[in-house]
């Protein structure tokens, strides 16, 4: 039987672009797009500083949380959950106009923010298991993606420092990888700090090995789904009250506080 990599239409990732229309086409064709220069200057510095500060606080207070697809006891990799409650800069990432344009192109509107967390790989950090983010959807999968991830590169993403690796075109297989496909060929993101990668929920991917001696690589992952799916993060319990208090109408919809049809309170939207 031919390998999954051989069945997919691409052996490489699309190049970096600054054209939103091209980015949307790349998502449809490759399952992923790379957009350059989205965060720059003080905004990029603020987001990076806020994330590393949150990570240090979690380690200092022994509040780290692992994830089922993470790295077991690998202490070189750190997951930081619910960054939306850690600094207002992450609210700006969630509703960034370009990110939302691409999210809407994949899952439509309204949609929900299922989670926004961060992944920091450290020197010697191990590899994540190959997976697709749509594992919550029963097979056979629908012909359209049910979710989309926006990755904010807060450091340069390189093959050496454990950049996320993809099987481009694997979304066309409409299924998750099988156990015997765990070692199929993957391609790493090569993108500078400030770029974003947007990929739909069926494309196969994993964090790579960080083979550097002294580099950390941080990425923030904002996960959006069609509104019929339960959010991974329970915002009603975990969100800092100030986020909801000052949220825009768009953010209230993404968090599930403002809704139509599902999630009503006494027949009306709760916000």
CATH class: Mainly Beta
Radius of gyration of CA atoms, rounded to a whole number: 18 Å
CATH architecture: Sandwich
User: Strand arrangement, largest sheet?
Assistant: 1-7-4-9-3-2
Number of domains: 1
Q: What overall geometry do the principal axes of the alpha carbons give?
A: globular
Q: Could you name the ranges where pLDDT drops below 50 across 5 or more consecutive residues?
A: none
* The named CATH superfamily: q2cbj1_9rhob like domain
- Helices, by number, come to 8
Stated plainly, the CATH topology is called: Jelly Rolls
Mean pLDDT: 93
How far the N terminus sits from the C terminus, by CA atoms, comes to 53 Å
Strand content: 15-25%
Number of strands: 9
The largest sheet, given as strand count, sense and whether it forms a barrel, is: 6 strands, antiparallel
Overview of this structure, please?
The termini are far apart. The protein has helices at 4-7, 20-30, 41-60, 89-94, 97-107, 235-238, 241-245, 249-255; strands spanning 32-35, 77-80, 112-121, 147-153, 165-167, 187-188, 196-200, 204-206, 217-225. It has eight helices and nine strands. It has 271 residues and is an alpha+beta fold. The protein has one domain (4-255): q2cbj1_9rhob like domain (Jelly Rolls, Sandwich), CATH 2.60.120. The longest helix has 20 residues, at 41-60. The protein has a six-stranded antiparallel sheet with strand order 1-7-4-9-3-2. The chain has a three-stranded antiparallel sheet with strand order 6-5-8, with no helix packed on it.
């Amino acid at each position: 039987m031919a390998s999954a990599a051989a069945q997919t239409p691409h052996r490489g990732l699309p190049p970096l672009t600054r054209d939103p229309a091209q980015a949307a086409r790349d998502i449809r064709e490759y399952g992923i797009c790379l957009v350059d220069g989205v965060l720059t200057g003080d905004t990029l510095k603020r987001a990076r500083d806020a994330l590393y500060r949150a990570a240090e606080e979690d380690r200092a207070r022994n509040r780290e949380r692992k994830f089922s697809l993470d790295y077991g006891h690998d202490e070189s990799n750190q997951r930081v959950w619910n960054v939306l409650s850690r600094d207002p800069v992450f609210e700006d990432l969630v509703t960034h106009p370009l990110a939302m344009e691409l999210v809407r192109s994949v899952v439509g509107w309204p949609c929900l923010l299922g989670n926004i967390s961060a992944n920091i790989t450290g020197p010697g950090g191990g590899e994540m298991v190959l997976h697709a983010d749509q594992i919550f959807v029963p097979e056979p999968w629908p012909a359209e993606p049910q979710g989309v991830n926006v990755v904010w590169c807060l450091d340069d993403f390189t093959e050496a420092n454990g950049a996320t690796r993809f099987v481009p075109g694997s979304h066309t297989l409409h299924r998750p990888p099988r156990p015997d496909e765990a070692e199929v060929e993957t391609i790493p993101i090569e993108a500078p700090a400030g770029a974003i990668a947007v990929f739909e929920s069926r494309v196969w991917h994993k964090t790579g090995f960080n083979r550097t001696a002294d580099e950390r690589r941080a990425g923030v992952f904002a996960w959006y789904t069609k509104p019929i799916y339960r959010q991974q993060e329970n915002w009603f319990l975990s969100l800092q009250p100030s986020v909801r208090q000052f949220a825009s109408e768009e953010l209230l919809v993404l968090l599930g506080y403002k809704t139509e049809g599902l999630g009503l309170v006494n027949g009306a939207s709760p916000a």
